[in-house]
Structure formats: structure tokens, C-alpha cells
Amino acid sequence: MRERGTGRRASPTRAPLSRERVVTAAVTLADEKGEAGVTMRAIAARLGVEAMSLYNHVTGRDDILDGMVDAVFDEIDLAAPTTDWKAAMHDRAASSRTVLLRHPWAVGLMDSRSRPGPATLRHHDAVLGILRAGGFSVAGAAHAILVIDSYLYGFVLQELSLPFTSRAELDEVAEGIVRDLPADAYPHLVEVITEHARRPGYDYTDEFERGLSLILDALRPDEV
Amino acid sequence: MRERGTGRRASPTRAPLSRERVVTAAVTLADEKGEAGVTMRAIAARLGVEAMSLYNHVTGRDDILDGMVDAVFDEIDLAAPTTDWKAAMHDRAASSRTVLLRHPWAVGLMDSRSRPGPATLRHHDAVLGILRAGGFSVAGAAHAILVIDSYLYGFVLQELSLPFTSRAELDEVAEGIVRDLPADAYPHLVEVITEHARRPGYDYTDEFERGLSLILDALRPDEV
DNA sequence: ACCTGAACACCGTTCAAGT
DNA sequence: ACCTGAACACCGTTCAAGT
């Protein structure tokens, strides 16, 4: 009837569960099998435990999804505060794209999560700080972030929806589309696929950089 | 043993099922209950039929989701071909945003669909045509569309993730965030919420227009 | 040709019971 | 305090059977 057994310890081979371990397992699972693979039973199995045990550390599946989004924000590199806001915004966007492509489920999860975690708050606070230090007003900084993040998330969303990941696949898919498509019904689509997307050297990283530069060059601290 | 009964007709009170009717029912259901509400059983119930009957008209749930995305593209207004590409791109983006806000599940569905339907193909072909007529090269038009659509989808994605839909809710949420937040940990976030987001007249349509103009003014036919 | 009952292999979550 | 067996109310999909 002792409340606390002093001599008894958890077996060292099995680390105790925690919210963090549950979220980490969920992220790994999502990377491997997609968001649909993130089930309570699958997460539990990966941790050597039953599904119901997870409810001792998270409130439910939604809580896990919130934690996963926050874990993604934690992976994004943030430049140290600096007055070179343009370089900092460029590097942050490039790092964000890399992280979002590494976790393809993340961008689709964003629009359903409304409880930002500590890493998310830290991220946004740091970005605001960089722009404020660079001379942006409060409203100007908010506007700049909204424009940059819109471009970033939308670009990755489109990049992820492409039905290919390699050059060879692109060629194959492009050929299939052009073959199936009534050329006279969609003349401009056929043109862009044959003349543009299939040309050697077409590269989404270049496209991302060009669009990002276009936006960053149009933003100025005194704009608002 | 007649193959075709000539005199027998379906009761006029119950229209025959079709892929289109299934997709339409799914769109209505998603608008009302969110994407998670789009189950085979719920769609069937709405059509006065059992879930298994749907498989006679669609190949499965994925086929329905593809159809839903195509139905959304069909709702977007497309300007007639014109040389005023900038006005046409503005109006298309504004119409797209309206449609995507009307169907909040659509933007999140985009990144998982890889089989574009006829309305989607028609839409992209028309947009390409407007830019080509406006003097853009094939590569320039593809680039312009990628930048504009990235901004559009990313903006709507962020707009939809906001945990409020009215002015009063915004005030309430903002107050809650500021109250819960350790002010010294996130000074810039507290600043932007109190000084910017809560100020009267803050309007997402204005923000959208400003960012869109910034991008459209930076795009030029001879840029590529 | 189209619809369906029953079944299969899953879900998230609750709850009382164990230790 | 933490874990779990059984159960509940769901999923998408298959298949053989009906008409």
C-alpha cells in the first residue's frame, strides 16, 4: 500500500512515454506512410504500447497533429536578428521550403490547426523581429510576412501536387498527358508541356528562387 | 428474359444516379460538415441509396475527391481572352479566392489530387491563353501563373486557418492570445496583435488585393 | 444494369478494470 | 500514475446475391 515505491524503477530498455515521444513517433510515421498512416493504433505500435495508453499523454489525435505542426516549425532555421532583412527572409523561406518538402503532410495540415505551439510562436516572433529591426512598421511587417508566407505555402502546395519526383517521371507523365489530351481542346496546355516543362534543366528550385526574389524586391520598409 | 424492357422506366420521383450527382452531393456535404463529413455512407444517404451503390458510378472515394476539385475549378470565373492580361489575372485571382473561401475544404484537397478533370484543364488552358495573348512567352506565362497561384493558394490557406470569422471573434481570440502569452517571450507577436490585427478596419480582402497588386506589377511579359 | 445485405479489416475514443 | 481489454459507433471496400 506504499504510495511511492522507492526501489522500483521502469525497465531501462523501455523509456517512459511522453507527449514529445508520441509526437516524434507520429512525425516519423507520417513521413513514411503519409498523413493517413498516422493512426492512434499505429503510433502506439511503434512505441510498443496499446493505442489507449496514448490518451495519458495527449488529449487525442488532434493534439498530436498540433504537436506535429509545431515540430515542423522547430526544424526551420532562423537567422539571427539582423538589419539585412532581405537576406534573412530569403534564407528563412528557402529553409521552410526544404522542411516542408521533407514532411509532405505538413502544408496540408496547416489550415486545420488553430492552436499554435511554442516553436510556432517563437518562429513568428523572430521573423517579426527581423523585419522590425530592418525598418518595417508593425503593419508593414505583418503585410510582408503574409505575402511571403502566402507565396511559400502556395508554391510548396503546388510542388507537392505534381505527380512526379524525378526527371524521368516528369518526361513519362508529360508524354502521357500530351498523348491523352485532345490537342485542339487545350492548345496552350499542350504547348507549355511540350515546349517548357519537358525542356532540360527545368528546375523547381530555380522557379522558387525567381518568384521569391520578385516578391522580396517589391517589398520595402517604407511601403506602408 | 428480355434484355431491354421497353415499357419500364425509373420512377420520375427518383432521378437515376450518376457520377455527377454523386460528386454534387459530396460537395454539398463537404460545405456543410467539412471534408471529414464526406463519407461514402453519408453521400449515399443524401441520395436515398446505400453506400455500395455509389461504386456503380465512381471507382471509389478518391474518384469523388477528384470530381469535387474539378467542380470547384468549374465555379471560377474566367475572363474572355483579352490583351489586358493584368486585369484578367486580377479578376481570376479574386474569383478564385471567393470560390475557395466558399468551399473551405478545396485548398487542402489540392495537394493530394493528381488527376485533373476537364474543368481544371480548361481553366489552366484559358489562363495560359490570356497571358500568351498578352505577350508572354511560353516560359514567361508558366512562371507568371506559378507565382500568382502560389500567392493565391497560400493566402487562402492562411486565411482559412484563422480561428475566427467575424470581427467580434477576432477581438475575443486576440485578447485570449495576448492574455495567455508571456509578453516578454514573444514581444513582437504581442505588439502585432494589439497594435495591428485588432485595429478597426483590418480587412483580409484589402490585404489580398495589396499583395496581389504587388505581384502583378512586378510581372512583365518581357521578363523572361 | 443497377442496387444491396452481409462481411472484412479497419478507425478514434470511452470506461472500467487492472497494477 | 500509468497501462489495457473490451466495447461502441463509426470508416472504405468487396462480393455474392437479388431484381
TrEMBL record, chains A, B:
One of its GO terms (molecular function) is transcription cis-regulatory region binding. Residues 39-58 bind DNA. It comes from the Bacteria. GO terms for biological process: negative regulation of DNA-templated transcription; response to antibiotic. Pfam families: TetR_C_1, TetR_N. Gene3D superfamilies: Homeodomain-like, Tetracycline Repressor, domain 2. Transmembrane segments: none annotated. Keywords: DNA-binding, Repressor, Transcription, Transcription regulation. Residues 16-76 form the HTH tetR-type domain. This is TetR family transcriptional regulator. It comes from Planotetraspora kaengkrachanensis. The lineage of its organism: Bacteria, Bacillati, Actinomycetota, Actinomycetes, Streptosporangiales.
